[in-house]
Amino acid sequence: MSDEQLREQRVDSRLAYDGDFLQVNKDTILLPDGKTATREYILHPGAVVVIPLLDDGRVLMERQFRYPLDRVFIEFPAGKIDAGEDILTCAKRELQEETGYTATDWQHVCTIHNAIAYSDEHLEIYLAKGLQAGQASLDEEEFLETFFATPEQLLSWVRDGSITDVKTVIGIFWLEKMLSKTW
């Protein structure tokens, strides 16, 4: 089976919005049947997600207000990849900045694309172990709380809808499989 019968081709592209963090492109594309259509999508630099696992089996988590949905979410530490930044360097930086913790053992878990219909965003998920506490250094406009939870609590919160953030849900499922050694 070939992808060619599904592939869309860009005919024209223009920047529809240029923000401080995100850009939106509006492209004219040629469909496989020869007709044209429009695609609007968000250009995103990508981000890292860190699953910080303590030696005692607990997980370091965050609570953070997210403006678009007007509520506080339970999440793994995460952050945007700076232009030209190595993804592991970014993961280490974000863990330290947001939580104060550093880690001695890092494992790349997976890459996810969380909004494929309207964004090129990708998230690089890492497992961090060998954690050592330190001083957080939050960005000027960043406010969050950290706390500890067990993997079982996290799964329960996914099940009951307390955790709905997609990067965190996927990370919790990966963590469960890694801890049970089924993956």
From TrEMBL:
GO biological process entries: nucleoside phosphate metabolic process; ribose phosphate metabolic process
Record carries keyword Cytoplasm: no
Keyword field contains Hydrolase: yes
InterPro entries, sorted: NUDIX_hydrolase-like_dom_sf, NUDIX_hydrolase_CS, NUDIX_hydrolase_dom
One GO cellular component term: cytosol
Domain called Nudix hydrolase: residue spans: 44-171
Catalytic activity: GDP-alpha-D-mannose + H2O = alpha-D-mannose 1-phosphate + GMP + 2 H(+)
Pfam families, A to Z: NUDIX (PF00293)
Source taxon at top rank: Bacteria
Official protein name in the record: GDP-mannose pyrophosphatase
